[in-house]
Amino acid sequence: MDRIVIRGGVPLAGTVTIGGAKNAALPLLAASLLSAEPLVLANIPDLADITTMANLLVQHGVAITIPAELASGARGGRGRVLELSARHITSTTAPYDLVRKMRASVLVLGPLVARCGRGRVSLPGGCAIGTRPVDLHIEGLRRLGAEVELNEGYIEARAPKGLRGAEIVFPCVSVGATENLLMAATLAAGETVLINAAREPEITDLAHCLVAMGARIEGIGSDRLTIRGVTSLHAARHRVIPDRIETGTYMMAAAATGGEVRLEGARLDHVEAVRRILDAAGVCVTEAADGGPEGAILVRRRNGRLAGVDVMTEPYPGFPTDMQAQIMALMAIAEGASMITETIFENRFMHVPELARMGANITVHGASALVRGVPRLTGAPVMATDLRASVSLVLAGLVADGETTVNRVYHLDRGYERIEDKLSACGARIERLRG
Ligand code: UD1
After folding, report:
1. Residues 38, 84: contact at Cβ < 8 Å?
2. What is the DSSP letter of 401?
């Protein structure tokens, strides 16, 4: 298994190019199942989770190719361009072996039921960050007229006469359930209203792509989405938004090391909550004046140590849960104390004992962690059980004295493209050890 070795203490300086958003690309890939005509997606990041979704779609009968005009080796600018053609869906079952690798596999369920009248998806089961049920996905499909049963570890949904529009009120905000039901509703007869919908930028991106495919959606960007079903969707092209979590992570890397970094292709409006917290901690984040059409962000720590700031995770536009572990690594070396409260997922503090092994002073009280900043961390062998926890250990390693080895790098590869290359291009002493 690969490991990443970091020798900390170097302020980062340079440019990092931000890739396409993993969490936008996953539902967009699943959306290809909704149409018999091809969907061309640009700026797809090269990540393990994307490969998992692509393998799942191929297994359903989707043909995935690089568009002819780019097949000569060009990659269509940054990121990959993929053409997905779901002309013939050959299987409506998403098997356990693929679903267990990635919970987002459940996003094929809505499109399969909407297009084929049936779908069978293995239950994702528990995962490292809490129980993470899929009851909202199932209830929503039932509201759209599907019969849903749980059988031998699979969710089996049937709507032989097609789905029909309905009003669905989410009792709590769910990104995945909003995406699944938004996709399903595009082909349901009549009107669907999703109330208390999640409004993460990834959902807005999905909605824009669905509209390009011929879907009729109002309220995009709000917590109330109204969808008027159509009988079929058509071919479309769409470019995936930049990854705001990757953006925020490199913002924190620059902040932690006291460097100055330019994030090319990043969108400041998508990381406003993170910018506010960093500003209070003593980090200056601005839009580059010469950012070009895709924009760029400049990150620079003001003089002196970072200041401790309280943080609470919330659905968008609040501070993202996917940045909670990273801000904790930062607060671990800040001056003063910081209370970090996790409101989205239970049990999302697995990085705490590992950060403590590097010298951080953190105590967990229920859903809150009290972080008392220390002047320095020390390198250690560490590992984490999820993606964002793993990257928080990389951040800690970048500022720690001595050598940090992050084990189980496959978690990082699920969500960060060439992280060691991007960081070493900014001067970090970081390398991947294979094997
Ligand atoms: C998505 C993101 C993940 C991010 C999370 C919250 C993708 C691929 N993943 O995950 O990176 O951390 O949003 O921003 O986009 N819940 C239920 N019942 C359900 C569904 C969810 O109780 O049917 C609960 C979950 O357990 C959790 C909360 O709702 O406590 C939010 O989960 P949700 O927004 O659905 O997260 P995901 O879509 O799985």
Report:
1. yes
2. B
Chain-centre distance for alpha carbon 319: 14
Residue-wise pLDDT for 79-123, tens only, equals: 699 999 999 999 999 999 999 889 999 999 999 999 999 999 998
Average pLDDT over residues 355-360: 97
Q: How confident is the model over 212-235, as pLDDT tens digits? A: 999 999 999 999 999 999 999 999
The residue assigned the tokens 């071919």 is 235
The residues near 49 (Cβ < 8 Å, ≥ 6 apart) are: 22, 26, 102, 104, 414, 415
Q: Is 175 in the pocket of ligand 1 (CB under 6 A)?
A: yes
Tell me how far apart the alpha carbons of residues 424 and 14 are, in angstroms, rounded to a whole number.
Answer: 10
| Residue nearest atom 8 in ligand 1 by C-alpha distance | 23
**3-state secondary structure string, 41-55?**
EEEECCCHHHHHHHH
Residues acting as catalytic residues: 127
**DSSP per-residue codes, 227-269:** EE--S----EEEEPPB-HHHHHHHHHHHHHHT-EEEEET--GG
335 Cα: distance to centroid of ligand 1 (angstroms): 33
CB 136 within 8 A of CB 174: yes
Cβ of residue 137 lying under 6 Å from some atom of ligand 1:
yes
